[in-house]
Specification:
495 residues, two-stranded antiparallel ribbon, disordered C terminus
Length: 495
Amino acid sequence: MMVTLDGTIVAVANPAITADLGATLAEVQWITNGYLLALAVSLITAGKLGDRFGHRQTFLIGIAGFAASSAAIGLSSSVELVIGFRVAQGVFGALLMPAALGLLRATFPAEKLNMAIGIWGMVIGASTAAGPIVGGLLVEHVNWQSVFFINVPVGVIALGFGLFILLDHRAENAPRSFDVLGILLLSGAMFSLIWSLIKASEWGWGDEKTLLFLAGSVLCFALFAFWETRVAEPLIPLGMFRSVPLSAGTVLMVLMAFAFMGGLFFVTFYLQNVHDMSPVDSGLHLLPLTGMMIIGSPLAGLAITRIGPRVPLVAGMVATAAACFGMSQLTPHTGTVTMSVWFALMGLGLAPVMVGATEVIVGNAPLELSGVAGGLQQAAMQVGGSLGTAVLGAVMADKVSSSFVGNWNAAHLPPLTPAQAEQATSAVTVGVAPVPEGAREDLAQAITSVAHDTFVSGMNTAFVVAGAVAVLAAVVAGFTRRGENAAAGAGAAHI
């Protein structure tokens, strides 16, 4: 809950952090990007640590470190310290997530594993829903530091329960050494990939810096794959990917996160800037989506246990695709009921995918690699989400930049200089109407109408692309099946 909550709650606190610490836009972006980079780069290595030393120890260290770094952020007096401790948060969060899946895999027998993962998915849905609402209330009524301090009591409670309840499961043939070069190569590849995706909107997709980081990522991945065939105990045994269901589940997580996280990025701007909602109100309007994830995850676990993952996964991605295509028809004046229908359908579609793809990946990996598999599942989500935000952001920006000036002129608004047009287009890409200060009411309304219509047309195009990706994901889901090694978890030894 802490890791997922901090993925969404901080966005609400950023304006207050900017005002209090005098942060620049680039520094505020690093508060989020530093966390996401550290999380994505560390996930698979953190999973390997759990396989080597036990997921219980890794999980408890992750809890303690995440709570401590959260407290340190709240006590920070400069934006540089906030960024540094956010990076630490990401590293400790990476210890938590794969360890949680490794513990579930080792603890529950095959017939109960899907329900356990369903409850895990329910917690993720609940914390995702709570982030903007809790963050908005805390920032409004307490201060931005409380957004981070809230992790301290949660961490203490989790640590207390964990010490008394969690068992130290160890696979008999758990790894005994570390692939240091493999860790460095994979970390370099993940950093270069995620960094290029984060910065592509600023640099441009054709910029030499973007292409350099992408090429560096490809090179590091290639060297990593070569090295893994030579080392005695590789970080990720490439033989894992001979399992078609595991490979399909990994690709499915990337595609699902692309459509979901990439699309959700625009929905936040749509609700807050086009419909002029507060962060708390926008969070409440997203409750149909997250609420259906909360309700649907345990039900999906039950269905997957009875009939296997393939049908629920295909149906889930078809529902997600339908929701994306439905949201491609939103207008600046769409009412709450219509929005809620599409949000609920997307949540209903995502629930079986979150549960089923996780079981397919973790359940098809050998027990001694359950931590690596959990890290792979989380890393696939991070890559997919970053890729979706970057690609759909580029689609959105291209649509807005190609149509905004034409829409402006068609509305017979005062002509813009090239510099004014560039500045106004940048504002419109996030749904902000570039109304000059002191403008007449009729002029302000006309500018707002053009800006919102242009933004929504770009968002609609992005959702069409997201829907097409979801259709592709439904095809990939057809190659999944129940985890071949899931039954091994029930017999895992514990200390």
